[in-house]
Specification:
heterodimer; A: mainly beta; four-stranded antiparallel beta sheet; 11 strands; about 0% helix; B: mainly beta; six-stranded mixed beta sheet
């Protein structure tokens, strides 16, 4: 298996633009997580899915953020409109269960100017 | 307030030295995981500890889960430059309703040749 695949690796966009981050989880993993990592706050959970259904989105900062998982092999995270304070590294991770070890993707480094 | 406090935040040592990093909480965890994250990559799972007092070894790395399941430590013997990275602990809180791992902010280790 190729692991969790995220795209793009880097994204630079202007404030106000829509940003879409993509993730392909490991086949057979029932859970998918979106995290955001910054120096100040570390890794923060944004949302997680179980069997393609969103379970907890309490970490999503505000209505500008949305995430979907239309099928077991794909999820996306959208930010519209983007703001400079959204600049961070966004990780997708997948796992067999809530408590089992997570496999992380390589992340998307987002810079909003 | 961070649920999982990691110390030290930064550690810079010479190759061949020993070191210990800590992960502490006032909460009880049903399990605790350690990850290592290298620059530009996502965290990679090193080990999961489940039983209070449990000790696990991974080559030169020794992981211990506290008897009360509130804390954990990672000891590295004869550190190598390849051990450089951000070490993250993450726990599943015992009896909590959260369905996700809670991450500490990490210890950034630099091993100089």
């Amino acid at each position: 298996d190729a692991g969790v695949i995220q795209s793009p690796r880097h994204e630079v966009t202007e404030m106000g633009q829509e940003v879409t981050l993509r993730c392909k989880p490991i086949s057979g993993h029932d859970y998918l997580f979106w995290y955001r990592q910054t120096m100040m706050r570390g890794l923060e959970l944004l949302i997680y899915f179980n069997n393609n259904v969103p379970i907890d989105d309490s970490g999503m900062p505000e209505d500008r953020f949305s995430a979907k998982m239309p099928n077991a092999s794909f999820s996306n995270l959208k930010i519209q409109p983007s703001e400079p304070r959204d600049s961070a590294v966004y990780f997708c991770a997948s796992s067999f269960t809530r408590q089992s070890g997570y496999t992380f993707g390589s992340g998307t480094r987002l810079t909003v100017v | 307030t961070q649920l999982l406090e990691q110390s030290p935040q930064f550690l810079s040592i010479q190759e061949g030295e020993n070191l210990t990093v800590y992960c502490n909480s006032s909460s009880v965890f049903s399990s605790l995981q350690w990850y290592r994250q290298e620059p530009g990559e996502g965290p990679v799972l090193l080990v999961t500890v489940v039983t209070g007092g449990e000790v696990k070894k991974l080559k030169r790395l020794t992981f211990q889960f506290g008897d009360a399941r509130k804390d954990s430590s990672l000891h590295i013997t004869a550190a190598q430059p390849g051990d450089t990275g951000l070490y993250l602990c993450a726990g599943v809180r015992y009896g909590g309703s959260q369905g996700n791992l809670i991450f500490g902010k990490g210890t950034k280790l630099s091993v100089k040749p």
